Amino acid sequence: MRELVEGVLLGTLTGLTPGLHVNSLSRLSLPIPVLFTMGLVHTFLDSIPSALFGVPDSDDTVPSLLPSHRMVLEGRFGELVRLSISSSFIALILSILFLPIYSFIAPLYTFKIGLIFVIFLSIVLIVLQRNRIRALLIFLFSGFLGYSAFNLPIRDPFYPLFTGLFALPLLIEAYRNPPAEIEIADSELKVPTKTILKFSALGTLFGALASLLPTLTAGQASLIGSRFTKDDEEFLTIVYSTNTAAYSFSLANLALTGKTRNGVMVAIGDVSIGELPYLYLLGVSAGMLVLVLAPRLAIAMGKLAFKRYKLSIASILVFLFVLGFIYDGLIGITLMLSAMFLGFLAPSWGVARVTYMGVLMLPIIVESII
User: Fold this and answer.
1) How far apart are CA 84 and CA 76, in angstroms?
2) 111-166, pLDDT tens digit by residue?
3) CA separation for the pair 54, 50 (Å, rounded)
4) CA spacing 20 to 30 A to 314: which of 113, 191, 219, 307?
5) Each residue's pLDDT tens digit, 333-357
6) Cα 195 from Cα 209, distance rounded (Å)
7) Which residues of 22-40 are buried (b: 16+ CB within 10 A; e: fewer)?
8) Domain boundaries, the chain
9) pLDDT tier at 331 (50, 70, 90 boundaries)?
10) In contact, 204 and 237? CB cutoff 8 Å
11) How far apart, in whole angstroms, are the C-alpha atoms of residue 318 and residue 316?
């Protein structure tokens, strides 16, 4: 019981605090059940601050408005929260049910398969976009930035890279053009249950792939999955379920093959197949708690944030830069700023932000060739 409570509290802290990634706390000497539960709860909740903070004034403010921001601007934040946690919980249950099949597939993975997939995904990532030339340039620019960052004498290049590419541009845009008064209230989930189940199942499939294949993220999977969706709700269901399923499957992958796919699994280090039932039981219990508690907590957080929105954004920006300095010093701050300037380019060019994943994909391809 204590491990469950600690994991839920820590996961809630990292999930709802902008910029505080679960990997930051995974460096602490925590028991394996607490680590796993913390990371799982984080995947349920990390969509909430990204939906709240970074909302621009209107659909015309930025070239590429995120689907979650559209729902917030429509006064559907409460429904968005329920969609997020429901999709994540369904993905968790489905991932557990699919474990027998996954346990057969996971040991078959090899580095060569992963490399072929990275090359294939890189091509797909560019080809699926309207402006392929600009998408290719964004991919190459971000890849060059990533390759340079991984050769710098810093402890954690991922934090400044991803914060600069994804978080800072959205926050700065929202600070410059804060939204008008937005209704933050709880509301029932209006998306049909059948739709949530269908696209959560698709997200779970993508999550299984993401737990095996390098550089495949929820964002990339959703870009592929968007070919099967017709509205924001279906798209977001894939994103949220992929994120949680990938994390859930990564525990099984660690037990089956010893491979680590995220910072929490690195911290766990080693887990036996015999420990999986208890850990997944904790996960389901944590998910049920989140289903009950998260909506009220998120609504309270949203109301507080929108009372002084620009002040909230400014505080988060300061917090992100302070963390960057703590992690990697002045070199990290310089890298974060470089990534930030690049982070403004894709939306202005009409290129999907997920193309920035070239920051990981291109270095893998280059290193394998060299």
Assistant:
1) 12
2) 888 888 889 889 988 988 888 999 999 999 999 999 999 999 888 888 899 889 98
3) 7
4) 219
5) 999 999 999 999 998 898 988 899 8
6) 22
7) bbbbbeeebebbbbbbbbb
8) 2-137+181-308
9) very high
10) no
11) 5
